[in-house]
Amino acid sequence: xxxxxxxxxxxxxxxxxxxxxxxxNHVVLPLLMAGLAVPEVATACELGxxxxxxxxxxxxxxxxxxxxxxxxxxxxxxAQDLAKQSGGKAHIFDQSFGEFCTREDLPDFDFxxxxxxxxxxxxxxxxxxxxxxxxxLKVGGVLYISYNTLPGWAATGPIRHILTEHSQKMGVGGxxxxxxxxxxxxFTKDLLDLSYGYKSQVSVAQAKIANIENHNVxxxxxxxxxxxxxxxxxxxxQEWLEPAKVNYACAANYLDDFSSVLYxxxxxTLLSSIKNPSFYQTVKDYLLNTQFRRDIxxxxxxxxxxxxxxxxxxxxSFLLVKPVEEVKLEIRPGKKTTLKEELVxxxxxxxxxxxxxxxxxILEKLEGTINDQAVYEVLSILxxxxxxxxxxxxxxxxxxxxxxxxxxxxxxxxxxSSFDIKYLxxxxxxxxxxxxxxxxxxxxxxxxxxxxxxxxxxxxxxxLKAKSEVLLRDGEKLMEExxxxxxxxxxxxxxxxxxxxxxxxxxxVAE
Length: 511
What we know:
Layout lengths: L27 H6 L9 E5 L5 H8 L4 E5 L3 H14 L3 E4 L3 H4 L8 E7 L7 H14 E12 L8 H14 L6 H18 L1 H6 L3 H9 L3 H8 L9 H8 L5 E5 L7 H4 L2 H8 L4 H12 L3 E7 L7 H9 L2 E4 L20 H11 L5 E2 H8 L5 H14 L2 E3 L6 H18 L8 E4 L4 E4 L2 H11 L5 H14 L5 E2 L2 E2 L3 H18 L1 H6 L6
Parallel strand pairs: 1-2, 1-4, 2-3, 4-5
Antiparallel strand pairs: 5-7, 6-7, 8-9, 8-10, 11-12, 13-14
């Protein structure tokens, strides 16, 4: 680790992930479902942005002015290069929190986002961030913050501790971090085999280390090998944020507040007896054994009345971003709770043309067969599941569309040689949509004027051949050219029939 990294892993870059909760447009539905006023966002800040994929997607796909910092100059440089591609309003720095948060040229912010970073920094840096939020978040502004949580980490936290300790105390000087990680994982596996008492008490211990071993090494380095790491109870987080004058509003994903899918009848009864909002959240985390919270806090949250709430809902529009047949009634994988078909099917049918439709249009077409509140709840659940997106206000869409086309073309061209970024920005949504490698290459071919699926097949196969790559089917490599072409033809037809029109509707590529 470098001296400037303050104990944070700097020898290996972070993953090129995208986190939709950092999209200011993403907070609208959870806040409305909580009956709270939604602020307009013109200025936003992301602290600890990693490779800057989220920041750049949100900057390109909206008219929000973004600021952000990440201490790692390599990551900040990558984020700055991305920003140049779209030409958006981004102010990106490689400063420490202490340096960035005391800049005199910073505006006040409507939205401040910290994804995960809170758990991996020192108490000194936490104090800097709380002071920054107190000074720079506007009244009514949104703080999105996610962090590792107790009691969910109580059982397996010791595994992270021994990994870090082994790397720091037993790592050979000069050994690359990838090798130190492998050595620490091997030692921990061997140790757990002999830790009879711990294994008997923590039945998931060996599964946990196996999961770590199979993860992307960049993710593992930053998740498990930083010097500082502190999971927190909700009450501790509330105590930390109190000086910033923010109040807990709701979960950043409505599904994390949707009680029907979270608790059984006895748990619901227990929770209903708790009137203190803070203690409610603590009990919730015990019932769910929560490991990671994604929360929205507001500086001065305001309840809005029924008439204003209805007006806010009626100003919204939605777009279905999955083929109809892929929209499942099951709310959470592995959970038995399902949506009622008689509520979901009529709404999905109205959105099945993959065009943007307003709430007013949906309610009018339903002709009172489903009450308004049920429609709001179904759409919030579908939004939480990733079946629909909330469309941005159409104002200034033209500028955002131009920026996203430039950014996406850069990402698509880079996919010829590497597949680091798996997302394309959408000016309709104000965020980014994930694509697998082959679908990304199909879109690249389409953007270069090849409109027919067979043309995509030839284009993509030539790219794969040039890199000596082959496709996988059911986990097995396809070694013969004929097999690869046949598989590409199958995938190209499916993408053309089911996903291309959605990509065009999202404006990730021009029609």
